[in-house]
Amino acid sequence: MPLKIREAIPEDSQTIFDFIMELAIYEKLPNEVKTTVDETREAIFAPNSTVKALICEEEGVAIGYAVYFYSYSTWLGKNGIYLEDLYVSEAKRGRGAGKAMLKYLAQKALSENCGRFEWSCLDWNTPSREFYESFGAVAKTEWIGYRLEGMALERFANS
Q1: Of 136, 107, 146, 139, nearest to 125 (Cα)?
Q2: Rounded to whole angstroms, how far apart are CA atoms 101 and 153?
Q3: Active-site amino acid positions
Q4: pTM of the predicted model, to two decimals?
Q5: Cβ distance 87 to 23 under 8 Å?
Q6: Burial 121-154 (b: 16+ CB within 10 A, else e)
Q7: For burial by CB atoms within 10 Å, which of 16, 35, 37, 121 has the most?
């Protein structure tokens, strides 16, 4: 049976949360997950949410997910799609699920006149980096990502 990619619905919130935890374990950071199923549901499915999710199914069973949102490029004057998470359960890898979700989002980007489709990958994740580069994705080397979170975010915002 072929893979099915579909837009997630609120009833998928527990499944999405479970995949978030699997991804965090894979990335060796399970204690970094602070969200809950309810917060995940609210973040993705609230009426004013800017976050979207996909579910990849095989024979009616969820085997992977993607979470994305829209970005904007002032230089291009167009929206882009930023992929926050892409994950396929370890036992289900090698069936084309990851590539199918990426292709779905690439097609969505084109159909919505987006100028970019981008994501980040941990530098140690060689299998994923090789996978992305196999179909033409290019690693960005000229940009350094920055983040404010937790106490640093609070201190800066309140300074």
Answers
A1: 139
A2: 33
A3: 132
A4: 0.92
A5: yes
A6: beeeeeeeeebbeeeebeeeeeeeeeeeeeeeee
A7: 16
